[in-house]
Design a protein that fits this description.
It is a single chain. It contains 23 helices and 18 strands. Strands 5, 6, 7, 8, 9, 10 and 11 form a 7-stranded antiparallel sheet that branches. A hairpin with a 2-residue loop joins strand 6 and strand 7. Helix 3 crosses helix 4 and helix 10 packs across helix 20. The longest helix is centred in the N-terminal third of the chain and has 29 residues.
């Protein structure tokens, strides 16, 4: 049981195919309520892959099986996030079976039972199996664990046997995909010409001087863009603007927050609980029974809220303290004294200078020297926190190196833990602490202590009453009823400034959220309902602690692309072209040196110089990595000046002042290998996209969930 759970928890970090194996066979699931009534119709096709329809009933059955597996393993039903993972898992499995499966079959690729045995317990153990069957003492893979597991396999519950079968299936799929991708990789070849091109792009250099007039130097208001120009640009650049099925909304939120009456009732309840806590004999049990959030009775400083720590020194045994506020939660405490713990707690900060344990000695020496210099500056009076922010190389740097509270329970690297807990009091440790990660400058900010405090805490969260919720719902209903058209909706927003209106543009059909609204599928389904028209106002939706009324403001189609679908982007591109024409025309009538041209042009013209540009990594000062300008720089002869030309974000006049060709090279192997490696890194993505395109995948899941 423990091993199956371990596999479930960790398999997500394995290879791509393994990521859709055991973890998602054991977590996820669905509690279906049937197909969404929003879409009506009689179609029961969830999708199409490789010419085969996937029926809703079949899709649902697979997810229900996973739901049952999850419930048996976790002891509870799946949550909303797990439901989404489950649907994705089932869909990906269909793609693997129907799209990839046909490719494997056509090539005669297979994984034999002998291969599977070899991956699980043979000479070529799969990385995912190695990860699961690790000896906790040595941290190394132990084949004996696998053998023992398989010996007991037939005595395990059916659910666990099925989980292992699914895991082995994912191993086979991973091996199949590896075979397929390796086969395609072996079919590619890098020519000498390609290697030479890569070498030249990295080593040939030029120095340039150029005049640059950025588009932003011309005010947008000075360039008028017509709809006909946008239409023309869209028609001539259809490949850049692919259609998508989206919806855009405006929506008003009605937050459900406690009323004054709710607050008064809550305070009375807190007072009552405080009195009862004061006289109860079993204060820890009373606190547990009456708390919305349970907290431990024995707490270290690390577990006590900051607001409470300040009062510890004045607390007396049996006293009642609070309420202490934390957001919408309030806590009252009964102090029961202290006791000693077997573990110590400390708070410290550090500045890490990276030096991996396998790094060369020269790298380690340089890191130590740097860390010693930082330590010396702090000893001389420099701020530890400021130095941490400047020189720290891990995630604590922005917090001034603060590591928070931690115990001597092995949570930190042993050498670090020994140094910190071996120090008495607070302050800067006199020497560096070396670990496998590098060198640490350490400051103890709160001294180690093994004191635990007895604190019976009653934690209550103030929440709106049913009467308050009903009143907010009534207001939302009234708004939706009175403002059921676009004009009325917008007029109401102008009239009542207290209403909070938000926009959500181009929501995808399969989206589960709308802006910061989580679990908002009901809103998305309404927006994509065939009966919902632009300008229509919704009924009231409930989303966590608020009610929502939405107005549909726009829709785009994947089949028909209109100017309005990409108006902002099209306008920016057309405006850029018009600015380029205006700037180029003005520059074309000016002669002289670059400085003379810039002076005659006027405001906005820049003259800059850049040395040692390469095609592979060339960056211009103000224009950045502009490929058109880079190509022009390498295409000009030394001393030659170009005519004005349009770049990515402005107009250039380029002059090459020096050219350093790539030195002759006899062996291009390194550049061939580099090109091969780059191609290999892209192989998986391109294969996946090509297979999906070839299989003509149609995904209709959003119409059902």
């Amino acid at each position: 049981m423990a091993l199956i759970t371990k596999i479930r928890e960790k398999s997500g970090v394995a290879a791509a195919a393994i990521a859709i194996s055991l973890i998602l066979f054991l977590i996820g699931g669905d509690i279906f309520q049937g197909r969404s009534s929003f879409f009506g119709g009689s179609s029961d096709v969830v999708g199409e892959i490789g010419g085969e329809n996937i029926k809703f009933q079949d899709f649902q059955k697979k997810v229900e099986e996973l739901s049952q597996n999850y419930t048996q393993q976790a002891g509870r039903g799946p949550g909303e996030q797990e439901l989404a993972q489950m649907r994705e898992q089932v869909w990906n499995q269909y793609i693997m079976d129907l799209a990839y499966g046909k490719e494997y079959e056509s090539l005669g690729l297979a994984v034999t039972p002998k291969e599977l045995v070899d991956m699980v317990q043979g000479e070529n153990i799969h990385p995912s199996v190695r990860q699961q069957f690790t000896n906790p003492q040595t941290g190394q893979f132990d084949k004996n664990y696998v053998i023992q597991f398989l010996k007991n396999f037939k005595t395990m519950p059916v659910a666990q046997q099925q989980a292992w079968a699914n895991f082995e299936k994912s191993l086979s799929q991973d091996r199949l995909r590896s075979k397929y991708e390796n086969l395609l990789r072996m079919s590619t070849y890098t020519t000498n010409a390609e290697a030479q091109k890569e070498y030249t792009a990295q080593t040939a250099k030029v120095d340039v001087r150029y005049l640059y007039v950025p588009f932003y130097s011309v005010a947008d208001s000075a360039i008028k863009v017509s709809d006909s120009q946008l239409e023309e640009y869209l028609n001539s650049h259809k490949d850049l603007f692919k259609g998508q099925s989206t919806r855009s909304l405006q929506y008003v939120t009605f937050p459900v927050i406690p009323s004054k009456a709710d607050t008064a009732s809550f305070y009375n309840d807190i007072k009552r609980l405080a009195k009862e806590l004061a006289v109860t004999k079993n204060d820890s049990a009373f606190a547990m029974m009456n708390s919305d959030v349970k907290t431990p009775y024995y707490a270290t400083l690390a577990e006590i809220p900051e607001a409470v720590k300040g009062s510890l020194s004045s607390m007396v045994v049996g006293g009642i303290y609070g309420p202490f506020k934390n957001g919408l939660s309030y806590s009252i405490y009964k102090y029961g004294g202290v006791q000693k713990d077997s573990l110590y707690t400390v708070r410290a900060s550090h500045i890490l200078i990276n030096a991996d344990k396998n790094a060369p000695d020269s790298v380690k020496a340089a890191a130590r020297k740097r860390a010693e210099g930082i330590l010396g500056q702090i000893k001389g009076g420099a701020s530890f926190e400021a130095m941490a922010q400047q020189f720290g190389s891990d995630g604590t740097a922005q917090q001034g190196g603060d590591l928070g509270y931690f115990k001597n329970n092995g949570g930190m690297v042993k050498s670090f833990e020994n140094a910190v807990f071996g120090y008495s009091g607070t302050g800067l440790l006199p020497g560096l602490v070396e670990t496998d990660f590098g060198y640490h400058v350490v400051k103890v900010t709160e001294a180690k202590t093994n004191t635990r405090y007895k604190l019976a805490a009653v934690n209550r969260t103030i929440s709106p009453s049913q009467a308050t919720m009903d009143e907010i719902l009534r207001k939302a209903d009234a708004f939706a009823s009175a403002n059921d058209t676009k004009d009325k909706f917008e007029a109401a927003l102008k009239k009542d400034k207290s209403l909070l209106m938000l926009r959500a543009d181009k929501i995808q059909e399969g989206a589960t959220g709308v802006n910061n609204l989580q679990n908002a599928r009901d809103i998305v389904r309404w927006a994509f309902n065939n009966d919902t028209k632009i300008g229509e106002v919704s009924e009231v939706f409930q989303n966590d602690n608020q009610y929502i009324v939405a107005l549909e403001t726009g829709a785009t189609s994947k089949d028909v692309v209109k100017v309005d679908d990409f108006r902002d982007e099209l306008t920016a591109r057309v405006r850029g072209d018009l600015k380029a024409e205006q700037i180029t025309k003005k520059l074309g009538g000016i002669s002289g040196t670059l400085e003379q041209i810039a002076q005659k042009y006027g405001a906005g013209a820049l003259v800059e110089t850049v040395s040692d540009l390469t095609l592979a990594q060339g960056v211009l000062t103000s224009a950045g990595a502009d490929p058109t300008a880079l190509g022009k720089a390498f295409g000009l002869k030394v001393g030659q000046k170009s005519k004005p030309f349009k770049g990515e974000a402005g107009v250039f006049v380029m002059e090459t002042t020096k050219s350093t060709p790539a030195p002759a090279i006899a062996d291009l192997t390194m550049y061939k290998n580099s090109a091969k490696m780059m191609a290999a890194q892209r192989t998986s993505f391109y294969i996946n996209e090509a297979i999906k395109e070839n299989a003509k995948v149609v995904d209709n899941r959003a119409k059902f969930y």
